[in-house]
């Protein structure tokens, strides 16, 4: 018996990379899949993936629509219900980033990144949970990013993706009483349009050389992450075997699966009178013990490696 036999799943941004892997793995486990993406290529990439699923004996349709508008989101859901009559799983994978230091980021880049990564996740999740709450079952998997915990030249993307994290935790509280789950992954894949295995090597070289990660704060796993591995982890989170998880954030890829702790203070002080600047001056050294501004006085070689990585991404970046 396949783990998702009889289930229906929507995967956004599924024409390539991680989304394609998620769609293919969900189908392998028995789900009927709505493959969504923007119309790229001829035939469109979403239809090519849907055809792959059908060729392997699964059931799939494609929908070429943007998730960043209510009309596009509605079109995707109408296609799912008209074709398969139900919905059980939503994987919000669609997204992309724009690299630039914050003082050079354009209004258009900021708005587009937020529209796809955060607004699109909202539109799709709102539609899905309206169905899931009524049927007292359903799973939403959102796609966050380790860039959300800190990355260079990606402040817009970081803001949108960490917004997805907060959104996931909030949605889980809204829907949990109805038997519905909402979790998020921070995927690690270096075989996508936006990343390459050489990118993994650059990150690992930096980490070994300077003793801390270039991106975020969490070291990379032992192998270059693959989209297929992320697809396996995402699919497992959609099964009943993972039903204990709701409102949780997972690392997925590079040979690692991990669950993030909830955000909480690491050190604090209480005052019965409330805090003043003078009072904070008295305890400031204790509050900030061990804290340092690691972005000052970085080695020149480290800064050059960071800038080279950003330059490579900018040169390779596809259009949204």
Describe the structure.
- By secondary structure, the protein is α/β, with parallel strands linked by helices.
- The protein has one domain: Rossmann fold, CATH 3.40.50.720.
- The protein contains 9 helices and 8 strands.
- It has an 8-stranded mixed beta sheet, sandwiched between helices.
- The longest helix is centred in the middle third of the chain and has 29 residues, at 107-135.
- It is globular, with a radius of gyration of 21 Å.
- It starts with 7 loop residues before the first strand and ends with a helix.
Give a quick account of the main beta sheet: strands, pairing sense, barrel closure: 8 strands, mixed
N to C succession of SSEs: EHEHEHEHEHEHHEEHH
Any idea of the CATH class? Answer: Alpha Beta
State the low-pLDDT regions, or none.
none
Beta-strand proportion: 5-15%
- The CATH homologous superfamily is termed NAD(P)-binding Rossmann-like Domain
Q: Outline, from the CA principal axes?
A: globular
Number of strands: 8
Roughly how many Å apart are the termini? 39 Å
CATH third-level topology:
Rossmann fold
User: Which structural category do the helix and sheet elements fall into?
Assistant: alpha/beta
User: How do the strands of the widest beta sheet line up side by side?
Assistant: 3-2-1-4-5-6-7-8
Per DSSP, the total helix count is: 9
Number of separate structural domains:
1
- Rg from Cα: 21 Å
Mean pLDDT: 92
* CATH architecture title: 3-Layer(aba) Sandwich
Helix content: 40-55%
């Amino acid at each position: 018996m396949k783990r998702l036999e009889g289930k229906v799943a929507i995967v956004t941004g599924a024409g390539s990379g991680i989304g394609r892997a998620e769609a293919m793995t969900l189908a392998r486990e028995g789900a009927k899949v709505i493959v969504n993406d923007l119309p790229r290529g001829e035939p469109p990439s979403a239809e090519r993936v849907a055809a792959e699923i059908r060729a392997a004996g699964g059931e799939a349709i494609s929908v070429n629509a943007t998730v960043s508008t209510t009309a596009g989101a509605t079109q995707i859901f109408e296609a799912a219900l008209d074709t398969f009559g139900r919905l059980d799983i939503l994987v919000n994978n669609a997204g992309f980033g724009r690299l630039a230091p914050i003082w050079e980021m354009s209004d258009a880049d900021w708005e587009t990144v937020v529209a796809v990564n955060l607004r699109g996740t909202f539109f799709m999740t709102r539609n899905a949970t309206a169905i899931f709450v009524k049927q007292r079952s359903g799973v939403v998997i959102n796609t966050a990013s380790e860039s959300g915990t800190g990355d260079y030249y990606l402040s817009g993307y970081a803001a949108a993706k960490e917004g997805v994290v907060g959104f996931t935790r909030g949605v889980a509280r809204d829907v949990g009483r109805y038997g519905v789950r909402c979790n998020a992954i921070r995927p690690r894949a270096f075989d996508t349009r936006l990343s390459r295995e050489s990118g993994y090597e650059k990150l690992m070289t930096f980490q070994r050389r300077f003793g801390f990660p270039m991106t975020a704060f969490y070291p990379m796993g032992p192998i270059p992450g693959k989209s297929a591995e992320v697809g396996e982890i995402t699919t497992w989170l959609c099964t009943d075997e993972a039903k204990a998880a709701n409102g949780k954030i997972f690392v997925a890829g590079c040979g690692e699966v991990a669950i993030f702790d909830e955000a909480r203070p690491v050190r604090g002080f209480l005052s019965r009178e409330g805090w003043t600047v003078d009072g904070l001056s008295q305890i400031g050294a204790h509050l900030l013990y061990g804290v340092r501004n690691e972005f000052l006085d970085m080695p020149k070689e480290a800064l050059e490696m960071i800038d080279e990585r950003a330059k490579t991404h900018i040169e390779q970046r596809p259009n949204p």
